[in-house]
Amino acid sequence: MRMPSLALVLVAGIALAGAPDSARTDMAPNAPAPAIPAAFQPPAKEAIPPGPYGDMVKLGRDVFRETGKYARPFVGNELRCSNCHLDAGRLANSSPMWAAWVAFPAYRAKNHHVNTFQERLQGCFRFSMNGTAPPLGDKVLVALETYSAWLAQGAPVSANLPGRGYPRLKSPPLQPDYARGRIVYQQHCALCHGPDGAGQSAGGQVVFPPLWGANSYNWGAGMEGVNTAAAFIRANMPLGLGGTLSDQDAWDVALFVDSHERPQDPRFTGNVGDTRQLYHNSRWSMYGQIVAGHVLGSGSMPMGDTGQQK
Amino acid sequence: MSRIRDRGSDNIRGSSPLVRRAFAGLLMAGASGISPALADSTGAAIAVHGTARGVLPCIACHGARGEGNAANGFPRLAGLPAPYLRAQMSAFADGQRENPAMAPIARLLSADEAQAVSLYFAGLRAPELPNSAPVAAGPGGLLALDGRWSDRLPACVACHGPGGIGVGTSFPPLAGQPALYLESQLEAWQQGKRPPGPLGLMQVVARRLSPSDIAAVSRWFAAQPAGDGR
């Protein structure tokens, strides 16, 4: 497929930024009000400066949007960073990178120590991308860090910038339920992600990401937490219709999605029960739980075949 | 009413110059290259000859190979998903998709005929663009490739595939569709003259677009090579 050159896109951005906003209308009577407190605004897309610094920002943006192409040795599935961080990491309440950047270094209960930002990015590759952590200082990590720092220009250093992460949901009114979740999935998700959660491709590119199975995030990813998935879904899904599902629907469908097999947790001890005790001891992890007679995690695919291993 | 709808109704109701031109094109198409094997099938026969009940040949307006007609804004049909085409025929017939040219045609087709002709056009290869001039990105390209999340607009290609080549059976190709056609459809969604589509997505998206957005993004997709999303 032919894509316009980056330079053209950037020029276009300048043209658009100069257009009057008054012509834009939103006539949708039922459109949800954006559930966004006044959030930090990252720099305009076209404001990346020329020179070596700007080149690294652009590389980071490209890694972010086309991870399998620009960070191939470290990716073991069909996802991209921008699948879970919408608008290439710019969008508030979609785990924007500007809010993450100003929150690190930070202590993480996940690994019981203070993590630098690059360490945090390593975790994304190991778990969410079901791949291999790039070494600290690798160009892929430098690029992603530079892109994130550029997005955060002018933001206060803070662990809790409004818009960070996904807006936490209250406990569900009803205990999340697989059968209800399946109905929500069929009605609101299967159109894009497919009835089997495998996503859809066109022209050799993944368009709708796989939500479970061998090509999705592994059991160690943050998104395997039903609470995290529910919060992401409630704020951002279906794409373009974020905020339209009820809290209960979001909880139910998150539980449904996270009750399917996916690649094994790379910290797997050899025993699902032990691994659950060590890494998934939460009411919101389905790992090790029995769904439809099957112990989740026991039929997991091995870790993804990354470009590095090929 | 848009220009396209006006033209469409002229085309059907009268013996306008457009109709005469269309049939001249039809005769030429018949002389050049529809394979006999395809013409044997019901769908191909309807596409090329119309029906005895008065359905006009599809190719009179949509082109000998279903490539569409950019000047008049008649859409490309070649290579579009059959279930999508079939659904449009139903929507034309019951008036949910308002189109004075297509409504009488859709009503004159039996369910089997509508299915056959949908399968026929779905099976045709997407046409090559006659002009392969490079596409200027501009604001249309930005909307298509990035969306505009400040207005909660996702990128068009996030659902319609890279370059708008289409994804699966529910997200039809936009690439290579006439700009006039794409514009008229976005306007139809804004005005409730076309069913809002799966999850109501297209009505929501269209209503977040300004007239200049619609013009720009339609031109951008019209200039994309159609390719083959399947």
Assembly status: heterodimer
Unreliably modeled segments of chain A: 1-36
Helicity of chain A, as a percent range: 25-40%
Radius of gyration of chain A: 20 Å
Strand order of the largest sheet of chain A: 1-2
Low-confidence stretches of chain B: 1-40
User: What do the pLDDT scores of chain A average to?
Assistant: 88
Number of helical runs of chain B?
13
Overall form of chain A: globular
What features would you describe in this structure?
- Chain A has about 300 residues and is mainly alpha-helical.
- Chain A has two domains: about 120 residues, Cytochrome Bc1 Complex, Chain D, domain 2; about 130 residues, Cytochrome Bc1 Complex, Chain D, domain 2.
- In chain A, the strands form three sheets. Chain A has a two-stranded antiparallel sheet. In chain A, strands 3-4 form a two-stranded antiparallel ribbon.
- In chain A, strand 1 and strand 2 form a beta hairpin.
- In chain A, helix 9 crosses helix 12.
- The longest helix of chain A is centred in the N-terminal third of the chain and has 14 residues.
- Chain B is mainly α.
- Chain B folds into two domains: about 120 residues, Cytochrome c-like domain (Cytochrome Bc1 Complex, Chain D, domain 2), CATH 1.10.760.10; about 80 residues, Orthogonal Bundle (Cytochrome Bc1 Complex, Chain D, domain 2).
- Helices cover about 50% and strands about 0% of the residues of chain B.
- Chain B is built from 13 helices and no strands.
- The N terminus of chain B is likely disordered.
- Classes of the chains: A mainly alpha (about 300), B mainly alpha (about 230).
- At the A-B interface, helix 1, helix 5, strand 3 and strand 4 of A face helix 9, helix 10, helix 12 and helix 13 of B.
